[in-house]
Amino acid sequence: MDFRLSKEQEEIKKAAREFAQREFTPELIQECDREEKYPRDVMKKARDLGFSTIKIPEEYGGMGLTLFEEVLVTEEFYSVNPGIANACLSSTFGTELITLFGNEEQKEKYLRWVTERHAITAMANTEPEAGSDAAGIKTKIVRDGDEYVINGTKTLITNGSVCDFVLVTGRTFQGKKRHHGITFAIVESSRKGFRAAKIRNKLGMRASDTAEIHFRDVRVPEENILGEPGKGFYYLMEFFNHTRPRVAAQAVGIARGAFELALKYVKERRQFGMPIASFQHTQFKIAEMATRINAARLLAYQAAWQCSTGERRIELSSMAKWYAGETAVYVADWALQLHGGYGYIGDCAAERFYRDAKLMEIYEGTKEIQKLIIAKHYLRDSLRR
Asked: Does the N-terminal or the C-terminal CB of the chain have fewer CB atoms within 10 Å?
């Protein structure tokens, strides 16, 4: 498969790199990391330039491009600073669901709110007792006349305390199977009974907002229900097929950023009268890191390309997400190791990449879940017997 970029794609990639290098200043990076500060001003600049609205259709004010272009931007942003990158590019998280399954009125209302008025979005599925088990949610979305009433708690929600609206899953009825009866609702954070509490003291990604959201008798009109009631689990699985290649690109960006730091350091750092880059062990590690990054990038590209062309390849999205996440952790670990004691100091960028990398193996489906998805794809005939 040929992944030679078009002139337009090269320009998008270059513009993303230049924006991140210019706007993600060392001072802002340290401030957001230490104070767990959400970089709203930079987020708005990224939104104005279209970096976070790449996949929103042009008729609703977005760029109207594909997941492949989004992956290109994502790698560039995350290679500079993952936390600020996450705040910028995840500010429209969940809009994919509206684009895929929303009706015309919902697209016109909510997508334009994002593109024209900088609305911040969230997608809330994870619960205190239901993370990888997406069918095990306990939140209720129950019909009451012309309205739906929502009760439940969601946790570890990106943008949870800064969002203007959230797409939330809840059980509307109990079907024959556990994943039946789940429904998506669009909930404005201004509605009575909505309460969000910011989660602090995270290992990494501290510039990105994470929160626990409580829904207490939150009422939404029928027009806020996304798609068909009871089909939410299927919508969620398709959503992940679109977002996991993006997470893979996040991981590739983190790995690349850590690798570039390590490469620069081993050329400059001298021990025993010579640069540590001259040591064979260092050279082996540089070779391994570079190879893994390129392999992860190709997987991310392939998964994004297949999705962008309309081919549904869930196993590719899972392969990319798992392998790239593992690569980010591996490369960030060795980048810090090559920095020695200096890498362990808080103001060292290698230390931040090390902390940020671990999330790549956890959110939007742990690496264990990705392996199960891949295995089931190849073993599905024997598993049905």
From this structure: C
Task: Say if residues 64 and 58 touch (Cβ distance below 8 Å).
Answer: yes
Asked, colleague to colleague, whether 7-117 and 121-230 share their fold, the answer is no
| pLDDT recorded at residue 347 | 81
List, in sequence order, every residue forming a beta bridge with 218; answer none if it has no partner: 150
Asked if 364 is an active-site residue, the reply is: yes
Going from N- to C-terminal start, the domains of the chain cover 7-117, 121-230, 234-379
Residues 132 and 117: their CA atoms lie apart, in Å, by: 34
Element holding 356 (H helix, E strand): helix 349-357
Q: Which CATH superfamily is domain 7-117 in?
A: Acyl-CoA dehydrogenase/oxidase, N-terminal domain (1.10.540.10)
| Nearest-10 Cα torsion for 373, 376, 378, 379 | 170
Over residues 200-236, the pLDDT tens digits come to: 999 999 999 999 999 999 999 999 999 999 999 999 9
Catalytic residue among 35, 361, 364, 368: 364
Give me the CATH code for the 234-379 domain, please. Answer: 1.20.140.10
Domain 121-230: CATH superfamily, name plus number: Butyryl-CoA Dehydrogenase, subunit A, domain 2 (2.40.110.10)
**pLDDT recorded at residue 308:** 86
CA atoms within 13 A on the CB side of 276: 17
Within the chain, which residues score under 50 in pLDDT? none
Confidence at residue 68, expressed as pLDDT on a 0 to 100 scale: 95
